Structure formats: structure tokens, C-alpha cells
Amino acid sequence: MEKQIGQTQLILKIGDITREEVDAIVNAANSTLLGGGGVDGAIHRAGGPEILEECRKIRDKQGGCPTGEAVATTAGRLHARYVIHTVGPVWHGGGHDEDRLLASCYRNSLALASQLKCRSVAFPSISTGAYGFPIERASQIAVRTISQEVPALDLTEVRLVLFSSADFEVYTRATTRS
Ligand code: ADP
Predict the structure, then answer these.
(1) What is the CATH number of the domain that holds 118?
(2) What is the pairing mode between strands 82-87 and 70-74?
(3) Domains in the chain: how many in total?
(4) Active site residue: 16, 23, 40, 97, which one?
(5) Structural domain for 79, as ranges
(6) Among 49, 70, 87, 121, which is 20 to 30 Å from 104 by CA?
(7) What is the pTM of this model?
(8) Any bridge partners for residue 29, and if so which?
(9) 112, 70 in Cβ contact below 8 A?
(10) Could you tell me the pLDDT band of residue 178, with boundaries at 50, 70 and 90?
């Protein structure tokens, strides 16, 4: 599924994000930056130890990454120039600023990609795995935030790489309605 937003093509697909060929792959990290399960584990496994080495350096310098923010490292063996690690909010019922923090993940990751002169960026479905954010709501925030941000940025392509056909359907609905 594709949608043109100004100069940028938004592409939704089913797949394993570690296989994407893009300038930047976004990781749904945790604030320690020391690796975890889910997409984070997959990215470190496929990308190799260089990514974690750089994460450690960032952690030593600035003590991890706060929720809603983003930091960049090498992409190691992945077919990308950078991995952008962003920390999604843990879902606590919706009254703890989760919506704003999730939007910040997409906004800050896109801004960082753009600063790094990336033209193509791939996102996973941030926060909707172990962090428990309801996916319908998350998909609307993701699509809305990407649509709001890309007109000011020099990006050719933003991909949302969904890990199941069920997730893909949810994001497709959000994109069609936006
Ligand atoms: P979070 O802690 O932010 O919820 P998770 O990694 O637990 O992050 O899940 C985020 C989403 O990433 C989930 O929808 C999960 O199914 C998906 N995911 C897991 N592995 C991959 C992968 N290799 N490629 C793309 N998406 C993945």
C-alpha cells in the first residue's frame, strides 16, 4: 500500500525490518539502549555487535535515551547507513502522556534521519509489542505524525514495515482514513 504525501512516498508493507534497504532503519529500543527482545533483538542480531558498541558509548555519554527521543548509530551489517533508536512509551492506560510520547518518537526519528541526510527511512510499529500500546490508536498516531512532518523534510520514502498481516491491515486502515 502506498500513499504520496507531497514529495514523500509513504509505503506500508509486511516484512522483517532487518531486511530493508534504506538509509535509516528505526529501532523500537528501550531507554537503556542495551538491547532487548522483539524488533530490538532482531536488529542487534542481524546488524552485529558494532551497533551495541555504539549504543554503549552513547549510554556512557548521556545515560541512555529518554522516552520519545531518538539517537543514531551505525547500522553494522544491515543494508542501511544508520539505525535510529527511539524509545516508545509503555502503555499505562492512555493517561500518562502515551499519545504525545509516541508521536515524539516518529517526529524525532524523522528529524534525526533528515539531519543525517537520509532520503529513505523504515519504521517498525513502535510500542505495540512488549510495550502494549493499542495498535489501532498507535497506527493513527504514526500515520498522522509522519504525514504532518514529512512536508518540511527532504525524504523520498518512509516505510512502515509491519510484522504480520493483521498489523498491516490496521495500518492500512489508518492510512486510508487519514
Ligand atoms: P515495543 O517494546 O516498542 O513494543 P517490540 O519489539 O516488542 O517493541 O514490538 C514492536 C513491533 O515490532 C511489534 O509489532 C512486533 O511484532 C514488531 N516486530 C518484531 N520483530 C520485527 C521485525 N524483525 N521486523 C519488523 N517488526 C518486528
Answers:
(1) 3.40.220.10
(2) antiparallel
(3) 1
(4) 40
(5) 2-177
(6) 49
(7) 0.98
(8) 87
(9) yes
(10) confident
